[in-house]
Amino acid sequence: MGYLRLLLEKLQNSVGKGGEKKGYEKNFDPDDPETIDMLCNLPAEKVWKIRKVSKGLCDLIQSPDFANTFLERAPSIAFLQRWQSMKFFYLDEDDNKRVLVNGSVPLLKKKKIPILVGSCNGLLLFESPPNFETKYNYYSYYIWNPVTQQVVNFTCPALDSQSGRIYGLYYHSSTQEYRLLYLRMNTNDGLFVRDYGIIKAGQNAGRRLYLQGQQRIPCPKAQPPAVVVKNFLYWMADSDNSYYKRPCQHSIIGFDTDAEELFTLPHPDDNICQPSTPHCPRIKYQMRLLEMDGRLTCWCLGVASAHVWVLNDESNNWSLRCHLNFDHDLFFKWLNHDIKLVSFLNNEVLLVWYDRVFRYNLSTRKVRNLKGFKHGFYLILVAHTKSVVILEDQRVGQPIYFESKEEDKSRWVDQVKQN
Fold this sequence. Notes:
This protein is mostly beta strands.
């Protein structure tokens, strides 16, 4: 912990004669590049604790500019939640250790156990579906930073056949705001997006409701959570509705977080399912999306093998990165579709499979199990970066509502305003 020692020495030397507090505040420069560099080399938990040393340091660490600078240097790790459990885990790729995250947050325990549905810059988004204890049949949501232990909670309406839910949390770079994407579905004519709302995280009311145009956007899967790649969110299309033909060209749903527009992409063509096929049964079980090296990656599972594809940003075409050959008896029995690829590291792939986590060496085909994961738990997985991002919470658990962008055409019923 050399950076922590150097930082403490620097802070001590900045104190005036006699150690007076006034001298400390006068001499300490929170904008000093050396101070910022030292802070950014510390673990996020240490940075958050050290803010208590002085008001100047606290103001620096809690500022949005420092939070963004810290995020630029912080490594991406895996964050896992056990199904229907308040137990969370960090999975560190370097030392293969799992660390239990403090899940004893009072606000997270007030209602039904929430399910992890998104991650952005250290903020985790959880959803608790409506139940008999939930007033007005609302979905309950929580944004939680495990480092700062801040929780922002709010609710969204579920309105019969026009029900909707929040599908993602993202950072809007031009306004430097954290926002939420709310999708409302039209269930009468296939599972398609009817319209969508933009919500500022921590704001007391919804932003706007955008009407969907002529393009038909399939409903994204609520699980697994959205994959964040630069300024885009991605999901696989929901394949539960068998009454409408969903071509492979629209099997991936994307959302541009800068333009705040929805679009679709085809899945990789691996000569098993052609893009012109009217139905795509592989969407449901055999394909998973993830971010890897700043690119959208598609993990396509077969019976005893897998293909890893990456999306070319300029052409929006898929390129095959590698082909993995698995031992059928060792890996697959009946839960083969549930294997999740996490990352590549030192010629090994990190995989999560239902009740265990392991590494698979691409050259030797040997497996190393990561100890500590008990059998019988389904793990929800997202890419995560530890941060000191904090939100201004003005919502206090109240329902949100939307202002329509086109009031003359919107059918949104403003019946969920605060009573």
